[in-house]
Write a structure and sequence with these properties.
Elements lengths: L1 H19 L8 E4 L4 E6 L4 E6 L8 E6 L4 E5 L7 E6 L7 E7 L6 E3 L4 E2 L1
Antiparallel strand pairs: 1-2, 2-3, 3-6, 4-5, 4-7, 7-8, 7-9
Length: about 120
């Protein structure tokens, strides 16, 4: 009987721990193409960032395509100079999206590889 009470107490403790635990934070996503342009998506802060990490190769673009919804994009904003620019988005967090990094507004884009959390 004692073993049953101890088992019940352990189960109650574990259940209480999970009930009051803070939710795990989402993973920030990042993709970099072969010329150094980078797109980052942080689902905790809803920030989309475009970085041009190789000066002289033009303007980088980060693109987030929301499933069944909008297309959001941000440019690094400084032309051929290294640096980043970000924008905070209002997205439906119950959905998912597709992250891309592009060499320019009309240049080639590289897909992250799988859907990302919003």
């Amino acid at each position: 009987m004692r073993a049953l009470r101890v088992t019940g107490a352990v189960i109650a403790t574990v259940a209480a721990t999970f009930a009051f635990a803070t939710p795990a934070s989402a993973t920030p996503y990042s993709i970099t193409n072969s010329i150094g342009d980078q797109a980052r998506w942080n689902p905790d802060t809803n920030v989309l960032t475009a970085c041009d990490n190789a000066a002289g190769n033009g303007t980088a673009k980060a693109k987030l395509v929301v499933s069944g919804g909008n297309i959001h994009q941000v440019f690094d904003g400084n032309g051929a100079v290294s640096g980043c620019d970000s924008v905070t988005l209002n997205v439906n967090e119950s959905s998912y999206g597709y992250l891309y990094v592009c060499t320019s507004d009309s240049g080639s884009c590289l897909y992250y590889g799988h859907p990302v959390d919003l």
